[in-house]
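Subgroup meeting minutes
Present: P.N., E.W., G.H.
Scribe: E.W.

1. P.N. recapped why we're keeping a running log of single-chain structure predictions: easier to compare across weeks, and new members can see raw inputs and outputs side by side.
2. G.H. added today's entry (128 aa).
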Amino acid sequence: HAPGFYINLKKDSIFYGGGIWAPENTTLGEIRDRICYYPKKWQHVIENENIINTFGGISGDGLKRPPRGYDGDHKYIEDIKRKSFFAMKQENNYKKTQKADFLKEVAETFDAASPLLAFICDAKGIEF
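Output recorded in log:
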């Protein structure tokens, strides 16, 4: 299970960006461990101006309580509780896709999500 870029085009719902959706437990543990062991690297991801300006931050549903084996007082416990990690831009107007610069915007959006994908790839020990 590896992160990736994603685009979904529907008439009433357009979203695009990148991340990892509902990875299996091994991958999820690797991401959570990387956040714990390298908090400064995670901080660089979540404070990245492109991620904040483009997506408003990292998203993903989370557990109500800390996962077993993780410190509930960890600085990034809300991120550690996540079950998915993604940065998505959402639009409601499909006509945006008909504009000449839409492809450029998607590429720029993918670029903005890249720090998150790089972090996840590092957690998995794969190249980005």
